[in-house]
Design goal:
five-stranded antiparallel beta sheet, 400 residues, two-stranded antiparallel ribbon, 7 strands, globular, Arc Repressor Mutant, subunit A
Length: 400
């Protein structure tokens, strides 16, 4: 089986589903200019994964954060691992620091984190090498690929909700002294209990992620639940790390610019993938928006030379009267995105519409994380989701 391409045209979940239903055995490589990950399959299930040139460091950090190994012992193990060529996990067992079962547990968690991280990739070349086996992988797991697809998709949606609650990166967190809870008994998951033990009134979200033994997503989810349950609260910015004052309006406009440009780019890609580059119907439809502020949201690849200019966009917005400029911009973008999504349904059908909505949702995590405080105050994410919801409701009405 020959399978290769780019994640711009085939999403990572779609690749996983194809390999799972085909019960394929081999190695899937996904790489960009700076990163490379490999996922190994046997009979359609995931048995191994590695971040090339960094997996050993990840395993070591996870073990240090668990409090099961000192940094000096880890350094000794890494030195021995490099001298012998044996895997770091095997080296740690040889040194009698860990037993095989504990290393296997941590490696399974590491493999899951590597695979789930790929769900957020929107770009990267991929190649599947059939019947190839992972090298230097003494520990294999057996993960249901379809379960991984469902969990990875759920994480994307859950991450969006988490981002709404997490405080800015320079804000410290502390336990609430007198929690306002309705029950006499507080129930915590194992992960929430672990993270709660790290919260001391001096650490930020970034600090907790670096100290956590359970990975970035699980850590942020635990912090989110602790905040929602009124067990943890923000206690102010760390001294000496207050960000320099920026022009808030320009920061907000740059977030909006990036957010909506990547969304319209993904929508245009849907039409080109389904109908080819010479798709006159989409061009005729989209040209009606090439005026005013909307001319800066052309659907061009944000990384290409044809991408609109952020500086010109900000200048054009600031040319409008201050009291109405933000309202006008968001009103026009709301209408434009909703119309584009509805046109996807009308021309390409329900399945592609659903794929388009999912693709648009995946795009928002990174832009919205640029400055969570401003995103929340200016209701950028809230307005964005109202637009998607309205397009979805319109499609439901049309379908009856």
């Amino acid at each position: 089986m020959s399978l290769s391409g780019n994640l711009k045209t085939v999403s990572f979940p779609d690749i996983l589903q194809l390999l799972s239903t085909g019960k394929k055995t081999g190695i899937l490589s996904v790489e960009t200019a700076t990163r490379k990950k490999e996922v190994a399959f046997k009979d359609g299930n995931i048995v191994h994964a590695a971040s090339v040139n960094s997996s050993e460091d990840l395993l070591g950090n996870m073990l240090v954060n668990r409090g099961r190994i000192s940094k000096s012992d880890l350094e000794r193990a890494i030195t021995l691992h490099r001298q012998t060529g044996r895997q770091l996990g095997t080296t740690l067992i040889d040194m009698k620091i860990f037993d095989k079962a504990e290393i296997a547990e941590v490696l399974k968690q590491q493999i899951e984190e590597i695979v789930y991280n790929l769900f957020a990739w929107q770009d990267g070349d991929f190649t599947f090498r059939e019947n190839e086996k992972p090298k230097n992988a003494p520990f294999l797991v057996d993960l249901s690929t379809m379960n991984v697809v469902m969990e990875g998709t759920r994480r994307i949606d859950e991450w969006i909700e988490i981002q709404k609650i997490l405080p800015p990166d320079d804000v410290m967190l502390a336990m609430v002294r007198t929690p306002k809870i309705k029950k006499d008994e507080v129930r915590l998951s194992v992960e929430e209990f672990q993270i709660l033990g790290l919260i001391n009134g001096e650490r930020t979200v970034a600090d907790l992620i670096s100290q956590s033994p359970v990975g970035e997503f699980v850590t942020c989810r635990a912090i989110y639940r602790l905040i929602v349950d009124n067990l943890v609260e923000a206690v102010g910015q760390r001294e000496g790390e207050k960000a320099q004052k920026e022009d808030e309006e320009e920061v907000v406009l740059s977030i909006i610019f990036k957010l909506y440009n990547v969304c319209f780019y993904r929508i245009r890609e849907l039409f080109e993938d389904m109908l080819g580059d010479e798709n006159d119907r989409y061009r005729s439809f989209s040209v009606q928006y090439n005026s005013g502020l909307m001319e800066f949201f052309t659907g061009a690849d944000p990384a290409s030379d044809q991408a609109p200019s952020l500086e010109r966009f900000i200048s054009a917005v600031k040319g409008l009267p201050a009291p109405v400029r933000f309202h006008k911009l968001m009103r026009d973008l709301d209408f434009m995105l909703s119309e584009h999504l509805q046109f996807v349904y009308q021309l390409l059908g329900l399945r592609v519409f659903r794929d388009g909505v999912s693709s648009v949702k995946r795009e928002i995590a990174e832009p919205l994380a640029l400055n969570r405080d401003l995103v929340k105050r200016f209701k950028i994410e809230e307005d964005f989701y109202k637009t998607i919801k309205r397009a979805d409701n319109t499609v439901k009405l049309v379908r009856g």
